[in-house]
TrEMBL record:
PANTHER family: TRANSCRIPTIONAL REGULATOR, TRANSCRIPTIONAL REGULATOR, MARR FAMILY. This is HxlR family transcriptional regulator. Residues 19-118 form the HTH hxlR-type domain. The keyword DNA-binding applies. Keywords: DNA-binding, Transcription, Transcription regulation. It comes from Sphingobacterium paludis. GO terms for molecular function: DNA binding. The keyword Cell wall biogenesis/degradation does not apply. PROSITE patterns: HTH_HXLR (PS51118).
Amino acid sequence: MRKENSTNTINEQFLFQVCELNSAIAIIGGRWKAQIVYSISQGNNRFHLLKKELPNISEQVLGRQLKELEIHAIIIKKEIPDTVPLGVEYVLTNKGLDLVSILESLCNWGKLYADGKEISACLA
């Protein structure tokens, strides 16, 4: 946790005020969030299905990323009735559904320009 008056925090707050794009990137930023959202859109809507689809993510990180997506109202967690133990599934909200087409566009952009490499490597 950063201090409220640290340079990083002040700069982050400034960038969020200057352009909503910075806020959007902060919400979907992180190594796994985009892939999690896309996987849920493809029907992998239970924890074990997401873990199977993304085998390199730890359960702790997957749980944390799902919680952050839930906090930002990208997904909601719904209880599955009549399951023992109580089952849950993750469902994209309208906000999350809108994000899927944006992620697909970014994916296409990456296919055109990133070629599976980090962008910084492409600029060198």
